């Protein structure tokens, strides 16, 4: 199997539909003045809805709709990922997103670190969620285009928030039984891909391959609430009182479950490294994120075994997703990250603290 290719085209509606988005809303006793398809979302179809309301003629609406005064977002989950045709998805996965947005534990996390938010659930259907508008600029795009953005501050706020989430979720009865079949199937696909790629590399023995694959099966006692697809592109910004310090909203909770927090760190790290390498790393986005995470998480979460899993999984996701249009990477970039990924994997399986202390993961070791 080759590396996954990700399409970023704006798609008007799911190919399985024989209707418009307005007709879909009407089927669920909803209507809106304007529906604009958006580019974001590798797996889900996303629209900006303006003037959303319930159908006046419906006495028993199919969809509970909270008060809406501004534009909002609708995400629809089909049976296949929108941008990655090889990946099959559970069509009811949006219920996981609704569950996360309504959870007490995330409300607690946002209360403890109020500078970072999650969307407010507005309504839902069988395969869609409707949520509050959180802006249209993601953190990666802002990093590239807005030199006034205090990237270190943004990274630090999100890193602290993530550590609070991981601490609050560990052993929490509200979330410890949260399963996610879609995430499990994607991770199985990634693990199989990693095994195949490493087995073809003479620098990795069969024992090395097994040690690398073990990163996908961390012991249950390290599990906590994990959104999994947690990264700068899934972090939206809105203007705040200080232009350099925008409001931050973490989005995309559709494959949230109870699992290894190393998967959250690896997605953030992998994307941030690729972004800083291409657009300048002197602004401290990743360093701020990891330093704040380590300070808040402490040794109970961010121990050496955790850092080694993060290293292996960073290498794995580069094998899985590179090259792809997700991070504007060229073929040469993809080859670079595959090579760099093998170095991260080697350091992780060997628990090479000396190598890791000189890598981008160094702040996690302090």
Automatic annotation (TrEMBL):
<dbReference type="Pfam" id="PF01636">
    <property type="entry name" value="APH"/>
</dbReference>
<dbReference type="InterPro" id="IPR002575">
    <property type="entry name" value="Aminoglycoside_PTrfase"/>
</dbReference>
<dbReference type="InterPro" id="IPR011009">
    <property type="entry name" value="Kinase-like_dom_sf"/>
</dbReference>
<feature type="domain" description="Aminoglycoside phosphotransferase">
    <location>
        <begin position="104"/>
        <end position="294"/>
    </location>
</feature>
<protein>
    <recommendedName>
        <fullName>Aminoglycoside phosphotransferase domain-containing protein</fullName>
    </recommendedName>
</protein>
């Amino acid at each position: 199997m080759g590396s996954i290719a990700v399409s970023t085209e704006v798609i008007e509606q799911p190919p399985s539909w024989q209707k418009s988005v307005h007709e879909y809303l009407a089927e669920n006793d909803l209507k809106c003045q304007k529906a604009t398809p958006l580019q974001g979302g590798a797996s889900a179809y996303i629209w900006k809805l303006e003037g959303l309301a319930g159908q006046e003629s419906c006495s028993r609406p199919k969809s509970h709709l909270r008060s809406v005064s501004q534009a909002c977002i609708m995400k629809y989950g089909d049976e296949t990922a929108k941008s990655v045709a090889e990946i099959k998805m559970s069509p009811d996965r949006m219920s996981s997103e609704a569950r996360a947005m309504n959870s007490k534990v995330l409300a607690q996390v946002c209360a403890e670190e109020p500078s970072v938010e999650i969307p407010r659930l507005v309504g839902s259907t069988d395969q869609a969620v409707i949520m509050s508008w959180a802006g249209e600029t993601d953190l990666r795009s802002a990093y590239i285009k807005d030199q006034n953005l205090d990237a270190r501050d943004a990274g630090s706020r999100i890193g602290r928030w993530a550590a609070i989430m991981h601490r609050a979720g560990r052993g929490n009865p509200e979330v410890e039984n949260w399963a996610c079949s879609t995430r499990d199937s994607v991770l199985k696909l990634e693990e199989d891909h990693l095994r195949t790629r490493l087995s073809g590399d003479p620098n990795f023995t069969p024992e090395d391959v097994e040690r690398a694959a073990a990163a996908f099966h961390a012991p249950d006692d390290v599990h906590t609430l994990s959104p999994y697809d947690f990264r700068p592109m899934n972090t939206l910004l809105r203007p705040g009182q200080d232009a350099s310090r925008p409001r931050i909203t973490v989005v995309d909770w559709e494959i949230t479950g109870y699992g290894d927090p190393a998967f959250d760190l690896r997605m953030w790290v992998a994307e941030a490294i690729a972004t800083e390498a291409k657009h300048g790393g002197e602004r401290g986005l990743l360093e701020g994120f990891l330093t704040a995470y380590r300070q808040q998480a402490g040794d109970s979460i961010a121990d050496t075994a955790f850092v080694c899993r993060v290293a292996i999984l960073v290498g794995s996701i580069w094998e899985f997703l590179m090259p792809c249009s997700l991070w504007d990477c060229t073929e040469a970039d993809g080859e670079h990250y595959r090579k760099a990924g093998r170095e991260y994997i080697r350091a992780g399986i060997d628990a090479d603290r000396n190598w890791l202390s000189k890598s981008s993961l160094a702040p996690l070791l302090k």
